[in-house]
Amino acid sequence: MSGYKELKTFPKGGIHPEGHKISADKAIELLKMPEIVSIPVSQHLGAPAKPIVVANDIVKVGQVIAESGGYVSTNIHASVSGVVSKIDKVMDASGYKRLAITIKIDGDDWLEGIDTSLDIKKKITLSKEEIISKLQKDGIVGLGGATFPIHVKLSPPEGKVADILLINGVECEPFLTADHRLMLEKGEEVLIGTQIIMQALGVSKALIGIEANKLDAIEHLSNLAKNYSGISVVVLKVQYPQGAEKQLIEALTNRQVPIGGLPIDVGVVVQNVGTAFAVYESVQKNKPLVERVVTVTGKNLKNPSNFLVRLGIPVSNLIKAAGGLPDQTGKIVSGGPMMGKALNTPDVPVTKGTSGILLISENESMRGEVLNCIRCAKCAWHCPLGLEPYLLMNLVEKGFYDQAQQEQILNCCECGTCGFTCPADRPLLDYIRLGKSIINQKLREKS
């Protein structure tokens, strides 16, 4: 961190877990194709897409196979070429069986008009409206984890105007390095993608926030950004969960999103660096979202790696390519150790929201004995949103959902900081997630 003084960060709470970025020096590799893929029709926040193909249809890479199921929804495209073998429910990362389109692979035949070359195309020719329409058609969603359809974010409601774009290059989750590698290897494309998003929003300023543990990415993007008007790189203090939207906004702009509000309420739109790259590929290369970079990592893994992966490929294939499942593996986690979720089986498909696969040993994955709360207040002290996790857990445990809602449980970003700091090993986040799901279900029923 030498050379960077008074680094910016968010003012309230947070922690600094060990980084374990053991795959940070591993260049992105192209993952070998399997014989079949199963592509879920719900890989985004909002309504599932509706299949428009049937069994025995022949499809090409980039072809729409499921159409958007509503405004907050998006298209799903074939990530491979071959024959649709079935449309049925398969197990996904949630642990539930959900509708997916299974394709038996035959060659690698791309839809005509998609540019798969490595040539960088800088000139942007589409209008604001054309950009938003293109991103909607190409199934572009936020690749930082939330998978929110980008066309919705780029179309603020009446009376709301963005004046600044923030690009999230923080990647504060321990172990994950996909965004880090993308910034190093596809920096030019990320900046062009940033320009495209700026044009779609009608803003003239963009800040790329990167934590100070990625000095090579900071230097690389800072040098490239000199040639892009309005785009600058800001170095941030290493502090979890700085990648969360509200914390990143406050760190970079000193603006505070109101409780229950959205970033657009303070004139900000946030996108991940992976999303900026996907935007570039869509607008400049006519390429739908059919693949993404995924980190496969773990302390006992033989070959921690960053792979470019076609959507629908089984997670088990990624693990095999990284050296195979280590002995005494206790958990396979989709995502990072703080916010990721354990998988029931490695035979689930990679989706748009799969940022990483983490293998944790039995010893490290075992939970400690849950003890009584000792009223130390560490969970409240470190909560970046100023919530009282111990209280929220108690309310949910006792079924007091209305009171939990009054105590702002829905404002929780599920960063896991509370559980990380709890000396009594109380499952705070588990109960908060349960409470949020029940309250959201009740709200949907009312509406």
Summarize the structure in words:
By secondary structure, the protein is of the alpha/beta class. It folds into 2 domains: 1-30 and 111-366, 3-Layer(aba) Sandwich (Rossmann fold), CATH 3.40.50; 378-446, no CATH class. The protein has 14 helices and 17 strands. The chain has helices at residues 128-137, 150-153, 178-185, 187-201, 215-225, 245-253, 273-285, 315-321, 362-365, 378-382, 389-397, 401-406, 417-421, 428-446, and strands at 28-30, 36-40, 50-51, 58-59, 64-67, 76-77, 82-91, 97-105, 164-168, 206-211, 231-236, 268-272, 291-297, 305-310, 329-334, 341-342, 356-361. The protein has a 6-stranded mixed beta sheet. A 4-stranded antiparallel beta sheet has the order 2-8-7-4, with no helix packed on it. A hairpin with a 7-residue loop joins strand 13 (291-297) and strand 14 (305-310). The model has no long low-confidence stretch (mean pLDDT 96).
Question: How are the SSEs ordered, and which strands pair?
Answer:
Layout: E1 28-30, E2 36-40, E3 50-51, E4 58-59, E5 64-67, E6 76-77, E7 82-91, E8 97-105, H1 128-137, H2 150-153, E9 164-168, H3 178-185, H4 187-201, E10 206-211, H5 215-225, E11 231-236, H6 245-253, E12 268-272, H7 273-285, E13 291-297, E14 305-310, H8 315-321, E15 329-334, E16 341-342, E17 356-361, H9 362-365, H10 378-382, H11 389-397, H12 401-406, H13 417-421, H14 428-446
Parallel strand pairs: 1-14, 9-10, 9-12, 10-11, 13-17
Antiparallel strand pairs: 2-8, 3-5, 4-7, 5-6, 7-8, 13-14, 15-16, 15-17
Helix pairs in contact: 1-4, 3-5, 4-7, 11-14
